[in-house]
Write a structure and sequence with these properties.
Growth Hormone, Chain: A, 17 helices, mainly alpha
């Protein structure tokens, strides 16, 4: 019944236009990227019963009791566990099922991701209706997190195979969508909650159901569009034997995922990615309070520190800080495409070198500009740093393909994403606890981030050392021709000479109008999200 999901039915024939694949990948990533924007639900969910204000639980009600209690509202700190579970299960599911993905193909993995992500949202909606938080954790946190992991890595592996000549650009386009998901989903969720809210309902349950339906259409359409090239395919006028691929950091061979944890280059790249993410994610988590506390009244033309501002002035600088956060999101998204594309010219190792050296210098300069009150330089430095944070996500799949080959790059990428889970704890802990420690020492709020920025710069220096130590993988780790043939058989790869008669539904050509339509489908919501974000950025210029 579901044979159309089999890998053999996803093989494209001669004349298939590979530029149909990036919008298919974007259709999935723009939906699952809403995981970054789930905080838009926390405040209304914290008033799900009280509506106007939270109905506080008794003091003796602990976290485990909140999972089942129906007579009081959830705390925002409790709701935040959904966000934590997103990325725990993203990393773990990508690591566990990355090998399965390579064997069954991206289409089946994409459809499973669709069912998990959208089904998880529906189960969460039931949890809201019944006021059972454990259902929300199971729905969006666990099941949705599994959908995140499978949806994140499935198109990346596919695009690397379609764009051997532009690996960084191709993965940058897809992963740009993951960064942009919240830019579209957050304002959409706000509009829907406003539409569904009544005197007796905050409108979150209906919003979950509506967004699950919208996401299901987009994700299923993108997943069913997924196609793979025949084994050994390459674009016209480009061949693996061209001088570029003779660079020693780009291998024509392939490593099996079962050996990846034994190879030092994997762990060095793991460390480099973890340090880059830790430094960036720490800034993302505290961007708004950091700007407000460092510059205080200077954000609105007043020579007053944060502690001396009154309530209207605090509201005014909060609006400016919201624009700063929106600006960072634009640079995060744009950096994924820009740095991913640039890495095709510079090489992955040099691109990461730039991330660490320039990023470290900018963190140190930002600490100086914070102490001198130079807000424009501080904001500019943070924007560039966040572009390189996003660029690290976009460049690393191509880095993996360069070092370990493309045969099992999806599975290897899944293993590497455990660095993300680690960084998701390390970065925020450093920023948050250092802030509390500095405040405990009695330092003024405008000075509490100076030491933190120095520490984040130090993390980038650790990443720099890891990156510099990366060298070509030793020959002993590559699969022999016999092992590679066995793996291709398990992965159901189809060679060029086997295409005739191999699949009845093989697409042999793609009308340009279909490519144009596919790009339009993803470009319209992306343009709307950018428009809404620029509305927040405008606060800088009012």
């Amino acid at each position: 019944m579901f044979d159309f999901l089999d890998k053999k039915h996803t093989i494209a024939g001669k004349g298939f236009n590979r530029w149909l694949m990036p919008p298919a990948a974007l259709a999935v990533h723009l939906c699952i990227g809403m995981a970054y924007g789930f905080s838009v639900f926390w405040l209304p969910l914290s008033k799900a019963l009280g509506i106007k204000q939270s109905l506080a639980c008794p003091a003796e009600v602990n976290f485990f009791a909140e999972l089942f209690i129906t007579t009081c509202d959830w705390k925002i700190s409790t709701l935040g566990w959904m966000y934590t579970l997103f990325f725990v299960f993203l990393g773990s599911s990508a690591a566990l099922w990355g090998g399965w993905l390579e064997h069954v193909g991206p289409r089946r993995a994409g459809v499973v991701s669709t069912l998990c992500w959208c089904g998880g949202m529906l189960l969460s909606a039931l949890g809201i209706y019944l006021h059972q938080f454990w259902l929300m954790l199971l729905g969006s946190g666990v099941i949705g997190g599994i959908g995140l992991g499978l949806g994140y890595i499935s198109p990346v592996s596919m695009l690397i195979k379609w764009f051997p000549d532009k690996r960084g650009m191709a993965t940058g386009m897809a992963i740009m969508g993951f960064g942009g998901g919240a830019m579209i989903g957050s304002p959409l969720a706000t509009l829907l909650m406003g539409h569904f809210a009544t005197e007796t309902d905050v409108g979150v349950m209906q919003t979950f159901i509506t967004m699950a339906g919208i996401y299901f259409i987009f994700m299923l359409g993108g997943s069913l569009t997924y196609r793979l090239p025949v084994s050994g395919w390459h674009p016209a006028h480009w061949h693996p034997s061209t001088p570029r691929t003779h660079k020693k950091m780009v291998t024509p061979h392939h490593v099996h995922v079962k050996n990846i944890f034994k190879i030092k280059q994997f762990w060095l790249l793991w460390g480099a990615l973890c340090m880059n993410i830790s430094a960036g994610i720490g800034v993302i988590g505290m961007s708004s309070p950091m700007l407000q506390e460092v510059f205080g009244g200077k954000l609105i033309g007043l020579d007053k520190p944060y502690a001396q501002l009154d309530k209207p002035e605090l509201a005014a600088i909060a609006a400016v800080a919201a624009g700063f956060t929106a600006l960072l999101s634009l640079f995060n998204i744009g950096g994924r495409f820009m740095w991913g594309s640039l890495s095709d010219k510079l090489g992955r190792k040099l691109t990461f070198f730039v991330f660490f050296v320039v990023g470290g210098a900018l963190y140190l300069s930002a600490a100086h500009s914070a102490s001198t009150g130079d807000k424009l330089f501080f904001i500019g430095a943070m924007c560039v740093i966040l572009s390189m944070y996003g660029g690290g996500f976009a460049t690393v799949p191509a880095y993996l393909a360069d070092l370990f080959g493309t045969q099992m790059v999806g599975a290897i990428h899944g293993r590497l994403l455990s660095a993300w889970a680690t960084a998701g704890i390390l970065g925020p802990v450093i920023v948050n606890y250092m802030r509390d420690y500095q405040l405990g020492l009695g330092l003024p709020r405008e000075q509490v981030y100076n030491q933190t920025l120095w520490i984040l710069a130090s993390l980038l220096m650790i990443g720099l050392v890891c990156n510099l130590l990366i060298s070509p993988v030793a020959e002993k780790w590559f699969m022999s021709p016999q092992e590679l043939a066995t793996e291709k058989h398990h992965a159901r790869d189809i060679k060029h000479q086997e295409t005739l008669g191999a699949t009845d539904d093989m697409v042999t050509s793609t009308p340009f109008i279909w490519v144009l339509l596919a790009w339009s489908v993803v470009a319209c919501p992306l343009a709307w999200g950018i428009y809404k974000t620029l509305g927040n950025v405008r606060q800088f210029f009012i």
